[in-house]
Amino acid sequence: MSVRRILVANRGEIAMRVIRAARGLGLESVLAASQADLGSLPARYADRTVCIGPARAAQSYLRVDAIVAAALGTGCDAVHPGYGFLSENAALVEACDAAALTFIGPAADQVRDVGDKLRARAIAVRAEVPINPGGAVDSPEAALSLARSVGYPVLLKAVAGGGGRGMKRIDDEAQFGELWTLARAEAQAAFGDARLYLEGFVANGRHIEVQLLGDGERVVHFGERDCSVQRRYQKLVEEACAVDLPAALRDAMRAAAVRFAQSLGYRGAGTVEFLYDADRSAFYFLEMNARIQVEHPVTEAVTGVDLVAAQIAVAGGAPLPFVQERIEFAGHAVECRINAEDAERDFRPNAGTISTAAFPTGPGIRVDTYVESGARVPPYYDSLIAKIVAHGSTRAQALTRMRRALLQCRIEGVVTNLSMQAALMADREFAAGPVTTSFFGRFIAARRDAAPLEEAVPSLA
Amino acid sequence: MSLRHEDVLRILALLDASGFDELRLETSDYKLHVRRGGAAAAAGAHDPPAPLQPVRAESDSGTLAADRVQTEPPARILAPASAPAAPSPTNLIDVTAPLLGTFYASPQPGAPPFVTVGSAVDADTVIGIVEVMKLMNSVCAGARGVVTEFVARDGGLVEFGEVLLRIAPVAT
């Protein structure tokens, strides 16, 4: 069944992105918005907007019944979940199936398979995808003995987790008892599931992920992204493709990702994340994300493919319009996430009204955003307000274009991380590239030392 | 579609005859918000505590004049619970929101509030929390004194600089 009218069950820049893709395909879009977002740019850009509940996500964007009712009530035949919120929630997929709505994403069992980290590890083993040594641990004693055989430092992770939440690094046995209890409590609180697993910690790692698209029969990849610039497991800068990877290793990583998704008969857009251990020239499976990701535009820049449009096409039952051999990579792309966060004050998020928003233009520059002058950044959701993507024939050219673009960008009324991103793009270590996941902590510490905070700044606990 | 004075009267009559306390009507041209006299604000409402008129009607076409609606007996429609407080008497200190966000008067749902009217506070006494994008920011009194008035609503949206509560200063 082909898709005609899509309910966009999300907000912010990804809502804009999906509406734009729908319009490009000649499809109608209906935005499901909370009360706080009824005046937003996507609410005005969509063909129609319906209110699905109060500002709080738990009463709107996270309500499966409200989303399905909104889709049916507005005559939609498909639901696009974006990222975050209900994008990887099997209950929404099942509710869409039951209501004969096309869910633009994978099947419910595929969402479940990759959402459970232990199940995903087992799938990786079966698909001969390398995994980091470790495993499930159901008692502190079992964890302790596994940690000894893996070797410190180790990571304790929530089985149901994601996005770095409920993750604890343990450097030695003295810390074990306390961090075990804390990790379990956090996992229970955040995911309603206290199960943990343990794996070796890679000190000098790069976060590399492979973009995939499947139609249920065939899976193709669109190369990889390097997302090693992270703060507390939150990505800040992403690039495509990854630089300085041995060719054989790059090929092996791409092939492993395809094998993983192929073994599930995967349908839709997805990403397999790997940790690349630069010291040992080895890579390990981290997890698979069963959704479109924030950083997908860098892949679109180097491949020329509209991933969201392709996602909608395969969800409607069309076979993949791509042959692996014909997917080509041109140049290099970088994305900077512009967040409403004060980098000088421990990245404290802030909300408010944007008095001025002037985004960069020019060759090789793309901006995905939901704000404009006068727009409101509500305090209820995440702090991402814009993504600036620079594409060039080389990494050096992409970085030059990004530096120029960041200088042209003006956002006033809320505090953003723009100047931090500009400094990051000018950083010598980053510009030389590639960096590992430990880079950003060092970068921020050096910046803090260079410009100490004034004493007069009022402090908040 | 325009909304005429008679339409509003009919809507009010319908509301009066119904079992509902509150009605919100919103189209691309106008917004109408009426509330039955004495009805408390709905629990967990998330309106910004903006200074609402007894009846707020906005119209691009200007068909509906707000002053005409206000000729209705005021008892029928009550100002919202979060009506702006009167300007602070000069001897009181305003404790304001340091950030735009959701204000919480107690550390967790169901727990007793940090402070109540009559509480003695010091400059570093935590009086509430402003949640912004899942980050909890403690708000301190900023001055020594006694809480005389609680202005912000627990769980409501507060704007940057909005008064949360007032303190009668005590000399140190």
What attributes characterize this protein structure?
heterodimer; A: Rossmann fold; Dna Ligase, domain 1; D-amino Acid Aminotransferase, Chain A, domain 1; globular; disordered C terminus; B: 172 residues; four-stranded antiparallel β-sheet
Mean pLDDT, all residues of chain A: 93
- Tell me the domain tally of chain A: 3
What is the count of helical runs of chain A?
Answer: 15
Classify the fold: give the CATH topology of the largest domain in chain A.
Answer: D-amino Acid Aminotransferase, Chain A, domain 1
H-E order of chain B: HEEEHEEEEEEEE
Give the class-level CATH name of the largest domain in chain A.
Alpha Beta
Estimate the helix proportion of chain A, in percent.
Answer: 25-40%
CATH-defined architecture of the largest domain in chain A: 2-Layer Sandwich
Distance between the termini of chain B: 62 Å
Query: Helix fraction of chain B?
Result: under 10%
* Unreliable sequence segments of chain B: 41-85
SSE class of chain A: alpha+beta
- Which structural class is indicated by helix and strand composition of chain B? mainly beta
Report on this structure.
The complex is a heterodimer of chains A (461) and B (172). Chain A is an alpha+beta fold. Chain A folds into three domains: 5-104, Rossmann fold (3-Layer(aba) Sandwich), CATH 3.40.50.20; 133-200, Dna Ligase, domain 1 (2-Layer Sandwich), CATH 3.30.1490; 205-456, 2-Layer Sandwich (D-amino Acid Aminotransferase, Chain A, domain 1), CATH 3.30.470. Chain A has 15 helices and 23 strands. Chain A is globular. Chain B has 172 residues and is mainly β. Chain B is built from two helices and eleven strands. Chain B has helices spanning 5-17, 66-69; strands at residues 22-26, 30-35, 56-59, 93-96, 101-104, 120-121, 126-132, 135-140, 145-150, 157-158, 163-169. In chain B, the strands form three sheets. A four-stranded antiparallel β-sheet of chain B has the order 4-11-9-6, with no helix packed on it. Chain B has a four-stranded antiparallel β-sheet with strand order 8-7-5-10, with no helix packed on it. Chain B has a three-stranded antiparallel β-sheet with strand order 1-2-3, with no helix packed on it. The radius of gyration of chain B is 19 Å and the shape is elongated. Chain B starts with a helix and ends with a strand. The chains are: A alpha+beta (461), B mainly beta (172). Chains A and B meet through strand 17 of A and strand 7 and strand 8 of B.
